[in-house]
Hints:
The complex is a heterodimer of chains A (358) and B (303). With 358 residues, chain A is α/β, with parallel strands linked by helices. Chain A has two domains: 3-130, Response regulator (Rossmann fold), CATH 3.40.50.2300; 134-251 and 286-343, Rossmann fold, CATH 3.40.50. Chain A has helices at 3-22, 42-57, 73-84, 98-107, 132-146, 161-177, 194-206, 220-228, 257-269, 297-311, 339-343, and strands at 27-32, 61-66, 89-92, 112-116, 125-130, 151-156, 182-187, 211-214, 232-235, 248-254, 276-279, 286-289, 322-323, 329-331. In chain A, helix 6 (161-177) links the parallel strand 6 and strand 7 (182-187). Chain B is mainly α and 303 residues long. In chain B, 70% of the residues lie in helices and 0% in strands. The longest helix of chain B has 27 residues, at 6-32. The relative contact order of chain B is 0.22. The model of chain B has no long low-confidence stretch (mean pLDDT 89). The interface between A and B is large, with 45 and 48 residues.
Amino acid sequence: MTFKTVLLGATAAAAFATGAVAQDDKTKVGFIYVGPVGDLGWTYQHDQGRLAVEEEYGDKVETFYVESVPEGPDAERVLTQMALQGADLIFTTSFGFMEATMNVAQKFPDVKFEHATGYQRADNVSTYSARFYEGRAVQGLIAGEMTESNIIGYIGSYPIPEVIRGINAAYIQAKKVNPEVEFRVVWAYTWFDPAKEAEAAKALIDAGADVILQHTDSTAPQAAAQEAGDVITFGQASDMLDYAPKPRVSSIIDNWNQYYIDRVGAVIDGTWESKDTWDGIDAGMVEIGEITDAVPAEVKEAALALKDAIAAGEVHPFTGPLKKQDGSDWLAEGEVADDATLAGMNFYVEGLTGEIPQ
Amino acid sequence: MSNIDPILLLSAIIVVSTPILLAAIGELVVERAGVLNLGVEGMMITGAVCGFVVATATGSPWLGFAGAALGGALLSMVFGILTQLFLSNQVATGLALTLFGLGLSALLGQGYIGVKGPVVPDLYLPGLRDIPFLGPVMFRHDAMVYIALLIVALVWLFLNRTRAGRVLRAVGENHDAAHALGYKVVRLRLAAIAFGGACAGLGGAYLSLVRVPQWTEGMTAGAGWIALAIVVFASWRPGRLVLGAWLFGGATALQLALQASGGVQIPIEYLQMAPYLATILVLVILRAGRAPGSLGRPFHASS
């Protein structure tokens, strides 16, 4: 936690102290972030959602946030503090906040919680996530078409289902358009560490990769690819348009705005209920950033066609026949993966090399 | 294993270890003068942002590095004045300096997120760069890599071969005795702290200008703490410091390269641990030195 966040927390505390005296009936919405709001990636997009809520409801809501909260005991402390400060609704925006969210939610049954990318729910805990893998499939297609070395580098954060799903989705699509393609996955064990992400990207480029996909939050891999020259990348979580038209040739954008507006609205109306939301391209929660001219026109067209087909529900990125890495059958011809399997995905599909750390 | 290019790997090691080396050599001088400054991380990140801001404003990475050194030194003076003149607790003040530096850098860098800085060119060393193997590994880097090594060499010379360096060590070993001999303990320590701050600033700027290269909040992500640890494990000796930094950088670069190469059979958890384990292990085996006698103790001329 940075000094700034401590200060912000103190300011927020002061604000609530005075708020309680004034007896105002604003709905108070808290956010805890795993990175800084200036990461231009994951946390940045959540904060955009927070700002959208403020804009939508104006004086009716009050939002506050604490950034760069480590996943673990610190998160529980921050959440407890937020709940004590009178928050009505708290968004916990990282997978690793799951335990802390559940623990604090139990202690404060009147406070509502929304946990991103998790799978544990309670009467006052909802979960929400986006089907990023739909965007990964589109990236996989572009990556498979564009690679010349046939080596695609993938910077993974932690080996959790969300990340593994993305690797699988991208690989399946890349393999479809380019049977020669090979994925190299580097686990960085961090969501946000620009120096480490840059090193991971460089290691992959040194190993021959000419396409880098990332599931970490900073723009450092983009900068590394730009420096290396003939390497393409995709923006992660946020558009990362500063690196367009090359290396960044497209991106997956998480758009939480509408979801946050809806859920805060539900709290204001008193209609909030615990539920699980998992939206994708069709609902606008996952957007594909502009595909630049560095991508050949026909590849761009194919990518957009895939995106539209996924949005329309005609194509599911996990459609059989598919086998697991160990060669066992997973999906039969034409069969589509069910959400439960996807949510807990802990295996690679056939063709991927390397082991998932357990 | 087979598809890792040793030349690329070794050259990556040199680059990866440079920021830690810079920050650590500064802290080494500070600690040899008897002061424990735990604010390395804060001074590094402040250097990172100052360097980036100056470099983008002027278009010159070299002015950026100068700005970073100045920024780090200025911030370290906050620590210096508090601990040396007001005799505040060094551990607490150092920790506070880290928190302060992280917040201050986030504030200073607000307009610079997503901005691209000037490119730092590789130093062109005719002849040397064409030596087989050694050329690409050692002689195709940017100038800061060599400046960092030069600083280490100069620090070694200073501490072991000059009168001023020996005075500095005397102050670190026993400040009362040094004071009795008429040396200006506080003044010397302030100078050492400023040097430490400047080096940490350079290390931070190396991240924001060369290695990443961009400004992102919190981008040092713990490098300052690694630097602090390496100083201790190197038993306060410049030569071992280089070894420690290269070992750490080496294990870090190697584990990423192993993962990227595809055919790794070693579980990734062990690879992740490797940099820390290797560094601790080797430096503990080598360990012979002891901490400067007055390290972390407050000094006042009246005592």
